[in-house]
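Revision sheet: structure tokens.
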Amino acid sequence: MKHSYVDEYSGLDSFVHRLDPRTKLLCSLAFILAVVLTPEGTWRAFAAYLLTMLVLILLSRLPIGYVLKRSLVIFPFVIMVVVFVLFFKQGQEAIGYNIGAWHIAVTYEGLSVLINVIIKSWLCILCLIVLSSSTRFEDLLHGMYRLKVPQIFVQITSFMYRYMFVLADQAMRMQMARDSRNFGLNRSNIFKTMGNMIGMLFIRSYERAERIYAAMLSRGYNGDIVVVNELKYGLPDAYFALSLCLLLVCPAILWW
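Predicted:
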């Protein structure tokens, strides 16, 4: 089966790829915090953040089309969450509709909140795409471990990433088997078959987890994370972190 891996372009050779995972994790966290804490309507700050991300995308040599395509996935979820702000945010009315005894109005303040949430979400997802695409997933986990992230969180994330492809393969094989056997079935039988597939997938996942845990125990697993390769923090990491901090401070000055 073919899968779309999170770190699909992590094998490229660029300045961003060669940075220490800890540097990229901390800088990404700083960037996201700066974007989230930026007040509404500070368009010059948002433009500076976008310019920063474009520079990082160029430095990492990631395909622009790939980054933009993956970043657009966030828009349906964001709009679905904040679309109701358009109608419940108090302020000056921009567009109004009368539906019987109901008057539904879209305010300029609601539009401003919607636009700000979309922009902030898009900038944050761009940052995460650059982070995940320029760093192997195991290196990200290693960096999280060295930054003293709780081991249980690191291990759960590692297992999730490792076995979600196995579960996806299992689900695809079950779907192919269903499609080869459901010729002529009505809609109710199809829903019943899908329900049985979901239940069977859950049972198989549980049984697989028990077998994997038993195999890990038989090989000496005691809950600790064993790391073979050590991370190296060099001058390029310091220069990059310092430059990014300065770029994040400049938009903060533009707020005033």
